[in-house]
Amino acid sequence: MIETLTLDPTASGIAKAADLLRAGGLVAFPTETVYGLGGDARSDLAVAGIFDAKGRPRFNPLIVHLPDLEAAETYAQFTPQARAVAAAFWPGPLTLVLPLKEPSILSPLVTAGLDTVALRVPAHPVAQSLLRAFDGPLAAPSANPSGRVSPTRAAHVLDGLAGRIGAVLDGGSCAVGVESTILGLADGPVLLRPGGVPVEALEAMLGQALASGGDAAKPSAPGQLASHYAPRAGVRLGVTHPEPAEIWVGFGENSVGAQLSLSRSGDLVEAAAALFHCLREADERAGPQGAIAFAPVPEMGLGRAINDRLRRAAAPRPA
Ligand code: TXA
Ligand code: MG
Predict the structure, then answer these.
(1) 150 lines ligand 1 (CB under 6 A)
(2) With CB atoms 3.0 to 4.6 Å apart as the test, which of 1, 120, 126, 309 could cross-link to 171 if both were Cys?
(3) Which domain CATH number covers 118?
(4) CA nearest ligand 1 atom 8, residue
């Protein structure tokens, strides 16, 4: 348990919140839709901490919050159409899913290893002030434990997350009350989630009807992973005695003699932060015909999300 500060949205409260974020901490902040649980989107440990605090059972990709379109263009490829949509609806309750600009300095946990990224420029003045004071990208899902309703007041955030996060910036109640609309523009416009911007307004702007996308919360089949995070090598799980030819990725006490380890001390937050980097590194070392063996990871806390991802990596996939 850590002490969760309640900060007023004054210059000093916002400066304190930005300091906590720079130190890798988590700060809940108001947006016009719902309160977000913010962490530095470039930090593997901060993003792993978001999943840990929320108790999320899988690593679905998170929305990256930025102060304006110019900052957003640092992280994603914008077509003229994407720029026009952004100009019409940002700042505001619209999220755009766009191709990631490589090389990316975002944690691969933010994008769940995909080669697209969800970007949003919130309009709430406190969110704007925080983003400008922090001067970096903030990953921010809704600030509630997984499976609970999204918070629209600081008190709701504290109900669910007190003791698990560094602070909440109290900006009163959120005007919109539902999450942002998510528009996929990576390959043709698709509606990935209805939300704060009416679909009709988007359709009028785009001049076309919008199809609804698949399950935006689970875009995580191995085939959708960026190629450098989708292992070509075979993957075995729960291995305590690897074959000599296997690249063994350890965890905790099963790290002795392992070429790589998710966490030698057996820390699940550290393991989550290391997961995508280990998948990539193990695959490079194993080569396309090679084999990777992961030591067992306990099915508790972030271990459930880690195992969910590893099971997908180990699942047979089309040749
Ligand atoms: O209103 C909101 O958008 C709130 C406030 C705090 O800004 N944030 C929010 O974030 O709802 P989050 O991280 O919970 O939204 C994540 C959802 C995923 O479940 C998925 O549906 C979609 O965004 N998403 C994120 N990245 C994606 C990607 N690369 N491809 C497809 N969908 C993506
Ligand atoms: Mg949510």
Answers:
(1) no
(2) 126
(3) 3.90.870.10
(4) 141
